Amino acid sequence: MPVREPNANLPRTVEEYRSSSSDLRTPRVTSPTTTASPPTEPLSIVTERPPWRHTFIALAVPNFRIWTYGNLIAMTAGWIQRIAQDWLVLELTGSATKVGITVAMQFAPMLFFGLLGGVLVDRVSKRMLLMFTQSAFAILSLVLAALTLSGNVDAWMVWGIAFLTGLVTVIDNPARQVIVTELVGQKNLRNAISINSSVFQLGGMIGPAIAGVLLMTVGAGWAFAINGAACIMVVIMLSLLRTSQMTRMAAPPRVPGQLRAGLAYAVGKPTIIWPVLLAAVFAVFGLTMPVLLASFADNVFHVGAGGYGLFNSMVAVGALAGALLSTRRASIRLRTIVIGVGITGLLQATTGLMSGVAPFALMLITVGMASLLFLTASNSLIQMSSNIGVRGRVMSLYVLVLLGGQAIGGPLMGWIITTFGAHIGMMVSGGMPALAAAVACVVLARRGHLTLQVRVRHHVPTVHIEHRPAV
Fold first, then answer.
1. Which of 155, 188, 289, 317 is the right S-S partner for 58, CB 3.0 to 4.6 Å?
2. Model's pTM, two decimal places?
3. Which CATH class is domain 56-251+258-452?
4. What is the pLDDT of residues 190-215, one digit of tens each?
């Protein structure tokens, strides 16, 4: 099946439909057809699982090692703040819907301005951008800490600071994604992406647990103060990076329509647009865990702030396991992402049927593992499919749907929980991504002329996807 070129002024990579199917492997990035974007080095296609000693091979790069330590501090403290922030609003208002508004305020800026952040990231030093964003996070966290510790905090103040934090996130998130390429180069990029995800989930495992202890002992104010101090530490660690050892790419030329060209580039590549679409649905429904878990902890199981921290930690335990497993992948395929979001949705919907604390917590581990495998695969495939010259804009689109979707999903899920209850909310949050995966399977099968065939071998039936030539 011939591949159409959506934009002749932007480079393409050879991971396009190799057999007009969804069975797409990790791509090689080729040189651009014009100078619209700089060329990239070839990316190796891994066909075998790496040896165990290479599970964390990207950490052998000194700059990436420093970045990882700082990132772990930032992620842990960030999760502490997010858990404390949501719980503080729940205490102040007693409403799950108001917690959803908090989530919306933090992620709405990404929905409206996320793509502009990607244009900036493509043009400016990622290290300097991150030093700026972490400094801004520190100031905002310390202000919220002062308000809370003084007893003068109200929900609208939390919402305002959450919105300002979201504005900074517009720049911080795509810069955080793209800087990995500059730190490790192309050779160990996929391993570095998986480690980055592992660090995020390790922070997500430690942070909520610490937040639960802090909320029960000293209150939310000190949690915000800890995040402010951690952001200052990250700025110091970013200053320690050896810029002479970073892989720098020339900024794209200043020409009109860069944002539109970046969108056309993403839309024209199946290995970018399909993960983005599935991530968007998952973000709106599946990534509303803070709202769901706050309601389960407060209204269903009555386990308070400690239980809320425990539930978040269970998700993070599974996600950390998924992140570590993702470093062992031999290849990344589009069908892996479609199946992954489907399985994640089914597991999340099943969690909504649990009536006891123990089975509920155990199911959260499986949800965390499945969701991280899906999200890491999506992140990796999108980055590996995009030329470095437009990667900031491409990743800003991905981050836009991932975080902006939560701005829509937070209030929506809060309303569903308030109207129908937490159990129904959890089943909806998983059922919609599962439905999206089913639709994606049908569309990809029709476009790729695929058929399902059942073969029996040694009396065991197995299902195979076969290519059907066009008539």
1. 188
2. 0.64
3. mainly alpha
4. 778 778 777 776 776 678 778 888 88
